[in-house]
Automatic annotation (TrEMBL):
It comes from Serpentinimonas maccroryi. Residues 98-185 form the Aminopeptidase N-like N-terminal domain. This is Aminopeptidase N. Residues 225-440 form the Peptidase M1 membrane alanine aminopeptidase domain. Its cofactor is Zn(2+). Its EC number is 3.4.11.2. GO terms for molecular function: alanyl aminopeptidase activity; metallopeptidase activity; zinc ion binding.
Length: 900
């Protein structure tokens, strides 16, 4: 496969000013007439025009209205004899394509009889020949023609300027988009859809029409998405002064979609999973996802669409920034300080269990990658989530201790300058960082910008080691911070990173101590940010007189940098942080560390996993959290959830997935039994009855009740008690909403109770007409603990279930993806049958949808640290796939890197 290198970037030789696109939509043969106005790019030496195209049937090419010579070369349409000089010329290209046969779901395809498009990253070339690259921005006018009865709704980007009837039962619509855009933001939709409409007046007094299009019958599930959209619009204007620049903003939902959603200008296309929500069909987590994905795509309207990427290596320019923006939006929506902390903890959990794993494995790549074979493989956690952390660190590094301690004002200034400078342009990550620095001269970011930008260039997760010394006589606390980043593929040696370390110091009794660095005239508050930029740095805190014990450092508050922190804190210190830290994140982290250390000890011990992994002091500390009179119930639930199996696997050199599972199960059982009365209390003290509302306060209560029920059913597994499983089953039957049903069923499945079977049966009966609930039904089974080694057989049987549809990405992911990505102890079987299953599914799916297959292929990329017999068997499965003839470039790139 050909590899694209970041350093090979050259500006386009031609520019496209206008595109006039006419599509006669037909499932079997769609005719596309593309009339473009082009001109030579005066900045580039004259050369032939090479237009990208994939799977197109070319019928005609006209240059300024007359026939011309052209050739096809490796898929590209090449025109050599174009008029010299700067004058614009017109090309007319007539092609056809077959949407019905499009199973990749890239370009123009059909989903349940409706036409949809997906163009990012390189799908537009499946619709017409084009300069399909993000730095070519054109104004589009689009005419859609189709049968009126079959396709009553015709949508594209921008404003509807004309529509009407045609002969033969056909009709047409003309859309004009006033904003120049790259081809990846083009979209059309044509089919039978209904819509919810909302008129709004923006802050500046302008009217806008918001519309959400769905299939008939789904309209009652669009209210939450509409509320989320309105909230996102108001938020971007209030926090960053960025208004909606369109008269009409549309969201359309489809159940056949390769990813979550797509930010096409004015016409976002969404996976139904991130639009539709009703109490009966969606869980709290689903509601939260709808809110954040609707916001994410909307926020792209500025960060991505008004200013886009020069090339795909800069993807994090729009994705990291927009994830940061949607995270901030969700935090601001959460309102209370504790709900904000809960959101931050959830985001960090994803980052640490999944992105850190990516950064430690064969797919490790910088936030701004240097090369790719298939760009779709680089829509990764590193580009998105680590990219968001890089943006977050910039906010921290432009902060001003006195005036703007969080850096929000400085960051908003930087964003304003970025949009002023680059509106309408396709730019790079350097341009973004430069605007941030220029808007904040004198800030830590501005003074260390070049070194800071190593976060874009160097892969891998840096390790920070903290050591401290306390001199009680002098009242001096010396903190030494050391950083080191392990080698990653192609990057054996790393330069030091610029790492903001937010911290506080606590006295042994939990009091927050005033912070004064050597050389400062007075203490400034009890929390501040140090900047670690050398391999080793010492920070001396003074004025700490009268302390009997050394202060306890609370480091990396709110997870101020995406690093792995090692401290020498003992269990007493961790319990003090757990009980008293003013930083909620570190309070949670202290609880996680207490559990983690003992879990690692159990993992490394020889012999069977012991039932008493946690010591009494830890159990008491956790009990105190659970019973705490003031803490947020969602925070309690996060704190009392043991580190995940994926996170544990990252902490060890030798990974034994079933043993990791056994250790975690042992801890869960121990917590369930030792805190039994407390769980009963938690369950009863947080009633969840009454009408469902997705707000943070009531969902927090449900989080804790759900965990309590889970624990009580697990305790019943040991005691043989029938009451709690019975209650869980009853809740499955009478569930007032999906969160309750989902949690109760999970409690039964995760305790291996026989009542899970009839509960599953009922769920299927009741919800078999709802695709999104069926997805959950498959996912619940595929991710359940494999108590007796029969789960693989069950998953295999479910492949033949009448409701299983391999070609539907959501359904394939719900069964196969859940099993392979979310159930390590069931996938990694000593007999290798899990890998055989993985291999067969990857090959099967790759034959029709390489993107979905490539994602699945990543499930065993981290075979290297596995213990035997897993290691050899996983490698064998990977090389079997790699040797398969006719593999897509997508899957080939993943397995090749995994085996390298
Ligand atoms: N920009 C799209 C992702 C496109 C993925 C292409 N393989 C959705 C998003 O990040 O908002
Ligand atoms: Zn995005």
């Amino acid at each position: 496969a050909t590899v694209v290198l970041r350093h090979d970037y050259t500006a386009p030789a031609y520019l496209i000013d206008r595109v006039d696109l006419s599509l006669d939509l037909d499932p079997v043969k769609t005719r596309v007439l593309n009339r473009m106005q082009l001109r030579r790019n005066p900045a580039v030496t004259p050369q032939p025009l090479r237009l990208d195209g994939t799977d197109l049937n070319l019928a005609r090419v006209l240059l300024n209205g007359a026939g011309c010579s052209f050739r096809l070369d490796a898929g590209q349409l090449v025109l050599e004899n174009l008029p010299a000089g700067p004058d614009p010329f017109e090309l007319e290209i007539f092609t056809t394509c077959c949407p019905e046969k499009n199973t990749h779901l890239m370009g123009l395809y059909l989903s349940q009889g409706t036409f949809f498009t997906q163009c990012e990253a390189e799908g537009f070339r499946r619709i017409s020949y084009f300069l399909d690259r993000p730095d070519v921005m054109a104004r589009y006018r689009v005419t859609l023609r189709a049968h009126q009865a079959a396709y009553p709704v015709l949508l594209s980007n921008g404003n509807l300027v004309e529509h009407g009837a045609l002969e033969g039962g056909r009709h047409y619509a003309v859309w004009d988009d006033p904003h120049p855009k790259p081809s990846y933001l083009f979209a059309l939709v044509a089919g039978k859809l209904v819509q919810r409409e909302q008129k709004i007046i923006s802050r500046s007094g302008k009217p806008h029409t918001l519309q959400i299009y769905v299939r008939a019958g789904d309209l009652d599930k669009t209210e939450h998405a509409m509320q989320s959209l309105m909230a996102a619009i108001a938020w971007d204007e209030a926090r960053f002064g960025l208004p909606l620049d369109l008269e009409r903003f549309m969201i359309v939902a489809t159940s056949d979609f390769n990813m979550g959603a797509m930010e096409n200008k004015g016409l976002n296309i969404f996976n139904t999973k991130y639009v539709l929500a009703s109490p009966a069909s969606a869980t709290d987590a689903d509601y939260a996802h709808v809110e954040s994905v609707v916001a994410h795509e909307y926020l792209h309207n500025w960060s991505g669409n008004r200013v886009t990427c020069r090339d795909w290596f800069q993807l994090s320019l729009k994705e990291g920034l927009t994830v940061f923006r949607d995270q901030e939006f969700s935090q601001d929506m959460a309102a209370s300080a504790s709900a904000r902390a809960v959101k931050r903890i959830e985001d960090v959990r994803v980052l640490r269990s999944s992105q850190f794993a990516e950064d430690a494995g064969p797919m490790a790549h910088p936030v701004r990658p240097d090369q790719y074979a298939e760009i779709n493989n680089f829509y990764t956690l590193t580009v998105y989530e680590k990219g968001a952390e890089v943006v977050r660190m910039m906010q921290t590094l432009v902060s001003d201790a006195a005036l703007d301690p969080l850096g929000r004002a400085g960051f908003a200034r930087g964003l304003k300058l970025y949009f002023e400078r680059h509106d309408g342009q396709a730019v790079t990550c350097d341009d973004f960082a430069q605007a941030m620095a220029d808007a904040n001269p004198g800030s830590a970011l501005a003074t260390q910008l070049e070194a800071f930008k190593r976060w874009y260039a160097q892969a891998g997760t840096p390790r920070v080691q903290a050591n401290a010394q306390f001199d009680p006589a002098l009242g001096q606390y010396t903190l030494e911070l050391r950083q080191h980043c392990p080698a990653t593929p192609g990057q054996p040696h790393k330069e030091p990173f610029v790492i903001p370390v937010a911290l506080g110091l606590l006295a042994a009794d939990g009091r927050a101590l005033p912070l004064q660095l050597e050389g400062e005239s007075q203490a400034t508050g009890t929390s501040r940010t140090l900047v670690l930029s050398a391999p080793v740095q010492r920070f001396v805190f003074t004025g700490l007189v009268g302390l009997e014990h050394a202060p306890i450092p609370s480091l990396l508050r709110s997870f101020s940098a995406p690093v792995i922190l090692h401290t020498e804190l003992d269990a007493d210190a961790l319990r003090t942080l757990l009980a008293h830290d003013s930083d909620a994140f570190n309070r949670w982290e202290a609880g996680q560390l207490l559990m983690l250390r003992q879990m690692l000890a159990a993992l490394h011990a020889s012999g069977p996993v012991r039932p008493d992994v946690l010591d009494a002091a830890t159990l008491e500390a956790l009990r105190a959290v659970l019973r705490h009179p003031e803490l947020d119930p969602a925070f309690k639930a996060l704190l009392l959830t043991a580190p995940s199996e994926a996170y544990l696997a990252e902490q060890v050199q030798q990974v034994d997935p079933p043993r990791i599972h056994a250790v975690r199960l042992s801890v869960r059982s121990q917590l369930a039994q030792a805190l039994h009365a407390d769980w009963v209390w938690a369950f009863e003290a947080h009633p969840t009855e009454g009408a469902y509302r997705p707000d943070a306060v009531s969902s927090a209560r449900r989080d804790l009740t759900g965990l309590a029920l889970n624990m009580l059913c697990l305790a019943a597994r040991a005691s043989g008690d029938a009451v709690w499983p019975g209650k869980a089953y009853q809740r499955c039957k009478d569930a007032a909403h999906m969160t309750e049903l989902h949690q109760s069923l999970q409690a039964l499945l995760h305790s291996g109770h026989a009542l899970a079977e009839p509960a599953l049966e009922r769920m299927h009966q009741r919800h078999r007409h709802d695709d999104l609930v069926l997805d959950k039904w498959f996912a619940l089974q595929a991710s359940a603990p494999d108590f007796d080694g029969t789960l693989l057989a069950r998953v295999q049987a479910l492949l033949h279930h009448p409701d299983f549809k391999l070609r539907n990405p959501n359904r394939a992911r719900s069964l196969i993806g859940s099993f392979c990505h979310a159930n390590p102890a069931a996938l990694h079987r000593p007999d290798g049958a899990g890998y055989a299953f993985w291999r067969a599914r990857v090959l099967e799916i790759d034959a029709f949808n390489p993107q979905v297959a490539a994602r699945l292929a990543r499930a065993i990329e981290r075979w290297q640290p596995l213990v035997e017999p897993y290691r050899s068997a996983a490698r064998k499965a990977l090389s079997d796939v790699a040797q398969h003839p006719g593999l897509s470039p997508d899957v080939l790139e993943i397995v090749t890197r995994a085996l390298a």
